[in-house]
Amino acid sequence: MANPADHALSQSSPPLAKLAGKYLTFTLSTEAYGVPVLKVREIITMLPITAVPQMPKHVKGVINLRGKVIPVIDLRTKLGMPDPPATDGNCIVVVQLPARAGELRNIGLIVDAVEEVANVVAEDIEPPPDFGGHVSVEYLLGMAKVKGVVKSLLDIEKVISDEVVRLPAEQLA
Question: Which whole number is the average pLDDT over 115-137?
Fold first, then answer.
């Protein structure tokens, strides 16, 4: 008789195979994360951030990046981690995400430090763990083993919800 776990794994294999590719990896606290490199527009040093009133705590404000106003989100705060200490390694990863009407919108993500661009093969990716109950892991694409270290692969579109993506631009309009 077939093992139900093997059946579940075989059903999830094609989506995991689609996750293989290049990821920009970075740290938040002591944890390592990755986002698909095709979503990353650029990595910049910290710039002065202009606060926007009545934003959620994780929305730090906006920056002026070569004449474009870009919202900036503290990824640590968004993921429920303690407030980050400022370090020389802090930087802003600018990601490009779909907005309304098929447009693309740039969002800045404050991270503790950028590590590398890693080529992740399908064999090194596992589905997000099932914590059971009310613990949601829908923002995780999977867990990747890169050079012996487990890195959480983020579905950055789910981490940065549409509500957050729209608010700063509408506030500034």
Answer: 80
The pLDDT value given to residue 88 = 80
Is the Cβ–Cβ distance between 41 and 109 less than 8 Å? no
SS3 content of the chain, % helix, strand, coil (to 5): 25, 45, 30
Instruction: Tell me the pTM.
Output: 0.80
32: left (phi over 0), alpha (psi -120 to 50) or beta: beta
- With contact defined as beta carbons under 8 Å apart, do 25 and 115 qualify? yes
**Interatomic CA distance for residues 151 and 155, integer angstroms:** 13
Mean pLDDT for the stretch of residues 111-130: 90
Rounded CA gap, 162 and 102, in Å? 13
- SS3 for 70? strand
Q: How far apart are CA 78 and CA 88, in angstroms?
A: 21
**80 φψ region: left (φ > 0), alpha (ψ -120 to 50), beta (else):** left
CATH number of 4-172: 2.40.50.180
